[in-house]
Amino acid sequence: MKTAVEIYKYLPKTNCGKCGTASCFGFAAKLATQQAKTDDCPNLTDAARAALRAGEQDHSISRGTVFEQTLQSLKPKVAALDFTRVAQSSGAILRGPDCLELMFLNECHTVTKDCILDSAGREPLPFLLILIYNHLCMPDPPAPSGEWITFGSVPASHAKDKAWAGHVEELIAKHFAGNVDGLKRVCEKFGGLPADIKGNHDAAFEFRFFPRYPVLLLFYDAVQDEDFPAQVKLLLDRNVDRYLDIESIVVLGEEFAGRLTG
Fold it and tell me: What is this structure's pTM?
């Protein structure tokens, strides 16, 4: 079976949401792990559909196996966590010896050593569970430094630069090109706070992916007369690699971009 990046090349890249996933890349990730079917996308060309179906026939791994194995490997780490200490270091609220209340992407989640539930009492998708547990298992995360850096400045980010640019920053920029007011409304809806940052950007919003995981979005709208396309810079705290591993940082960025544009 093709990887998510390979599958993404076949998709329409409209982020229409008709497949039930906020972004085309998110849908590609689900196809790669057999959490979705090719026919869930109504906008595929016949050639793309045929190519992806051929890949499905060759897939020998059962649905969800990759995520299940990852969650299984995390269980010993989660079981060993001192939730009192985790609450202090992560900014979560301790609701009991083994129960936390944690804000994640502007939504309250209840976290125990056995499960995670969102504000509606539902269990999030497996890859979101992995992101949350990965964050809580990071050893001795420091407080935010207050210094913003680009993704390219994060240690070991070089192999993920293209994914961050294409699936996060460019995705947001293209979606909101010529629509600064629309971007501002959506940012506020998803918990973004206007940021007082000097520069020539058209919008600046600060988000908290986790209570102590700040992110700064800078939006530069397109200038047609100067042939200047819309651009986005999603800046991270200097200590971001102490909050998540590099792979999880990218996946979280892609999930955020998908929700913002979905």
Answer: 0.77
